[in-house]
Amino acid sequence: MTQATADLYDEFGDDLQSVPMQFRDFGGRTAFQGPIRTIRCLEDNALVKSTLATPGDGAVLVIDGSGSLNTALMGDMIAESAVANGWAGVVIHGAIRDSVAIGGLDLGVKALGTNPRKSAKLGAGEVDVDLEFGGVAFAVGKRLYADEDGILVER
């Protein structure tokens, strides 16, 4: 990333949405950016696994897990797949597991927290749909910028 989120906001102001939720950094890359792809799922990570196994082309996958911390939506094997397939990062409105291993990967990962419990694998959910959490809209193709200070999204 060439410019910090604070500097981007100073330059572009209300052209950017600032996510007020306090996500934690888990990936080995704390600053990342890219076009948004999305998944909406609740305690089921089958779509996360299949999506991150496809070419990411520098995109950021935003996952709305409804803020549930009951199960992890991503672990180290899925995160390794994301790295191998060229994803820039993953933002999870929910939990991850294998946080130490994920911290060693060249991938941006922001999530609400951790839980060692696996999620369901039924494939329930939706891919590439508009999401909203924290008062911010996440639309497919809009650009997301993230660093240690937070997350900005194009309007």
From TrEMBL:
GO terms for molecular function: 4-hydroxy-4-methyl-2-oxoglutarate aldolase activity; metal ion binding; oxaloacetate decarboxylase activity; ribonuclease inhibitor activity. Substrate binds at residues 75-78, 97. This is 4-hydroxy-4-methyl-2-oxoglutarate aldolase. It catalyses: 4-hydroxy-4-methyl-2-oxoglutarate = 2 pyruvate; oxaloacetate + H(+) = pyruvate + CO2. It comes from Microbacterium tenebrionis. Keywords: Lyase, Magnesium, Metal-binding. Pfam families: RraA-like (PF03737). Signal peptide: none annotated. The keyword Metal-binding applies. GO terms for biological process: regulation of RNA metabolic process. CDD domains: RraA_family (cd16841). Its cofactor is a divalent metal cation; Mg(2+). Mg(2+) binds at residue 98. It comes from the Bacteria. Homotrimer. Belongs to the class II aldolase/RraA-like family. The lineage of its organism: Bacteria, Bacillati, Actinomycetota, Actinomycetes, Micrococcales. Catalyzes the aldol cleavage of 4-hydroxy-4-methyl-2-oxoglutarate (HMG) into 2 molecules of pyruvate. Also contains a secondary oxaloacetate (OAA) decarboxylase activity due to the common pyruvate enolate transition state formed following C-C bond cleavage in the retro-aldol and decarboxylation reactions. Its EC number is 4.1.1.112, 4.1.3.17. The keyword Magnesium applies.
